[in-house]
Specification:
The complex is a heterodimer of chains A (about 575) and B (about 140). With about 575 residues, chain A is α/β, with parallel strands linked by helices. Chain A has 15 helices and 28 strands. Chain B has one domain: Rossmann fold (3-Layer(aba) Sandwich). In chain B, strands 2-1-3-4 form a four-stranded parallel sheet, with helices on both faces. Classes of the chains: A alpha/beta (about 575), B alpha/beta (about 140). The structure holds flavin-adenine dinucleotide, iron/sulfur cluster (2 copies) and FE2/S2 (inorganic) cluster. The site of one iron/sulfur cluster has 15 residues of chain A, from helix 13.
Amino acid sequence: MARIGVFVCHCGFNIAGVVDVKRVVEEIKKLPDVAFAADYKYMCSEPGQNLIRQAIKEHKLDGVVVAACSPSMHEVTFRKAAASAGVNPYRTEIANIREQVSWPHQNYPEEATLKAIEVIRTIIEKVRYDESLIPLGIPVIKKALVIGGGIAGLTVALDIANAGYPVILVEKGEELGGKVRRLSGLYINFNAPDGFLEEKIKAVMEHPNVTVLTRSEVKEVGGYVGNFIVKVETPSGEKSFDVGAIVVATGFDLYPLQALGEYGGGRYPDVITALEFERMLKDGLKRPSDGKEVKSVAFVQCAGSRDPQRHRPYCSKICCMYIAKQASLFKQKVPDGQALVFYIDIRSQGKKYEEFVQRAIMDYGVLYIRGKVARVYEEGGRVFVRGVDTLSGRPVEAEVDLAVLANAVVASPGTEELAKRLRVATDAFGFFQEAHPKLRPVESLTAGVFIAGAAQFPKDIPETIAQASGAAAKVLGLFAQRELIQEPTVAYVVEELCSGCGLCIEACPYEARALHPWKGIATVNVALCQGCGACAVVCPNKASRVRNFTPLQYLAMVEEIAR
Amino acid sequence: MEFEPRIVGFLCNWCAYSGADLAGTSRIQYPPNIRVIRLMCTGALDPIYVLRAFLEGADGILIAGCHPGDCHYLNGNYKARRRVAILKEILKELGLEEDRVWLRWISASEGQRFADTVKEMVEYLKAKGPSPMKNPIL
Ligand SMILES: Cc1cc2nc3c(=O)[nH]c(=O)nc-3n(C[C@H](O)[C@H](O)[C@H](O)COP(=O)(O)OP(=O)(O)OC[C@H]3O[C@@H](n4cnc5c(N)ncnc54)[C@H](O)[C@@H]3O)c2cc1C
Ligand code: SF4
Ligand code: SF4
Ligand code: FES
C-alpha cells in the first residue's frame, strides 16, 4: 500500500478562483492510498513547501502529488522539497490544474472542478507505480578533441591546455594557422599577422598537453558527452582517442569564383578573390595575366552576398572591413595608384572600425562608389567594371588593371560529412548550427560538442578568438564536474521477457541499444538513452520499458480518465 | 441533457503539451471535455493505450506532437504517424469508427491551434454521438 500525499495549490485566485479546491481535497481524501490531502494558497512559497515537508514526516508519505501549475514551472521545486523530507524525487509528480484546467476553463467552474479531480486521480495512478530512482552519474574523460587548426582551433587548444587538460588538435592541412596565415596585414593597424600567429603556433606545438596531428581527419565519432571515442586518420595510420569534449573549428571557405560569372569570376585571370589579393599584397602587385605592375584596382564588395535571387542572402560580415584594409594597403604601396570600392553600404560595427574605413577614404584617398556592380569584363588587356552609382543614379564604368571580388564567405568544404559524423546539425547554408542563436552561441545541440570561429558563421579574428575562448570555457566547465548527472528515467530490459529479436535496436534513434554478446538479449547504454520510449512501443514482448513511463502506468492512467 | 464527448489527449511533452500550457497561459478558452496524458514523445504511444481508452469509454482520442522534422527525439512523430495509420486501418477492418482518432501536429507556440483543435473535435464528436466502443462489461 502506497502512502500518497496530495497538495492542492490555490495559486492565489488563479486556480481557486475557478476550481473549488476544498471540494477537490474532500474528494481526493476518499481515494485509496491517499494518506493525506490539503490545500494551500501558494504551494511553491516557503510555507507551502514546509507544509509538504511536514506532512511527509507526520504521515510517513512515500509519494507526493502537487496539484498546481504546469510541471514545466515547479516540478524541480517540489521534487527538491519532497526529497529534503525523504520522498524520492521521482515519486513526486505534478497534476497540472492551472495551465490545463483553471485558466482555459474560466467560465466552467463545475466542469473545471471535476476535471481537476480527474487529473489528480491520473497522476496518483502514476505515482502509485513510480519507482524510486537516483540520478545517473556518468564519468567525464578530461581530454578534448579540437578539429581545425586555424586561429579558432589554436586558441581553443591553448586555453584548454593551459588549464591543465590534454588536447588532441586535428588539422586537415599541412600546417597550422588557417586562413590567417595567408593574410598580408590586418585591420585596424595593418600589422602582419605572422608575429602573433607564429607565437601561437609555437605555444601549441611546444605545449606538453597538446598533441598536434596535421594532414589528419576525423573519420568516426562514437559515444556521448564525457565519453566520445574518435577515430582519426593520420599519415601514420588510423588512431583512436577517448575524449570528453569536442570543439569544431573548421573555419570557412570562399564562394567559388566560377559561380560569380556576372563579375567575370573564373573567366578572366585579372578578376581574383580577395584572398589572392592578400597574397599579392605580400608577394608583389603583378597582374596575373601579363605580370605588369598593378596601378589601379576595383574592389567589388558583396560578390555573392546579400543576393537572395542568385547567390547567398546573408551578409558575409568581414568583407567591408578587409576591403577597406586591402584598398588602404594598396595605396600605401602604390601611392599614385587608384583604388575604387563598389559597395551597397558599409557595415563597420566594431571598436574603431568606422574610423578605420574613414581613414581609407580621407587619408589614403580610396574612392568609394555606392552601387551594385552589374558586370565585369575584360577587353584589350583592361578590366571594365560596370554598375550604377545609386547615390547619383548614373551608370558608372571603371577601367582598371585588376578587379578584386569580396566573395561571399561559405561553409568550409566537408562540413556536411563532419556534421553527420558528429551528429550535429548544420544551418540552411551549411554552417554548423549553434544550440540557440542568442543564448547558446558556442554549443551545438549535441551535448559535449562545441563550435568555435568561422565554422559557425563569418567572423573576423577578434570575434573568432572571443568565441574560441568561450568554447574553451564551456569545455573546462564540463571538465570541472566530477561526473555528469543524467535523468534516470531511461529504458531498461526485463531479461526474462526479451527474446532478442532486436526490433528495439533498430527503433532507437540514439544507438543506445545493442544485443548482449552472449546472453542474446537487448541491453541499454543508459548514458546514451534519452528516454524517448520508441523501443518500448516496438517491443513485441513488452520487455523494453522506460522507467516511470511503463505500460502499467499508462494503462492505469487511461482507466482513470477515459471512464 | 446534451451529449458531452469525453476526449483523451496523448500529448508529447516537448511540443503539444507545451502548446496546451500556452493556451492556458494565454487564457484561450476551450471546452473542458479533454483529459490529457503526457507522453515524452508521440513515438512512445502504444496503440494499446488508445484501444484501452475506447474500451473504458472515451469518445475520441487526440494524439498530438511536434510538427514533422521537429520531434525532440528526431523521428518519433514519424513513427507515430505510421502507427496511427495502421491503427485506423485495424479499426476500420473491425467495423469501428477510425475517425474518432485524431493525429495533429501542434508546436509549443501554437496555443491557439491546440484550443481550436479541441473545439473542433468536441463539435465533431457531438455530431457523431457517443462511441459504441465502450465495453459494457468494464
Ligand atoms: C581576404 C580576407 C581578409 C581577411 N582579413 C582580416 C583582417 O584583416 N582582420 C581580421 O580580423 N580578419 C580578417 N579575415 C578573417 C579571418 O580570416 C578569419 O576571422 C579567420 O580565418 C577565422 O579563423 P578560423 O580558425 O575560424 O577559420 P580558418 O582560418 O578557416 O581555419 C580553419 C582551419 O581548419 C582546418 N580544417 C577545415 N576542415 C577541417 C577538417 N574537416 N578537419 C581538420 N581540419 C579542418 C582548415 O584547414 C584550417 O586550417 C579575413 C578574411 C579574408 C577572406
Ligand atoms: S528510450 Fe529511446 S533512447 Fe532510450 S533506449 Fe529506448 S529508443 Fe533508445
Ligand atoms: S524488442 Fe523487446 S524482445 Fe526484442 S530485443 Fe528489444 S527488448 Fe528484447
Ligand atoms: S517529442 Fe514531440 S513528437 Fe517526439
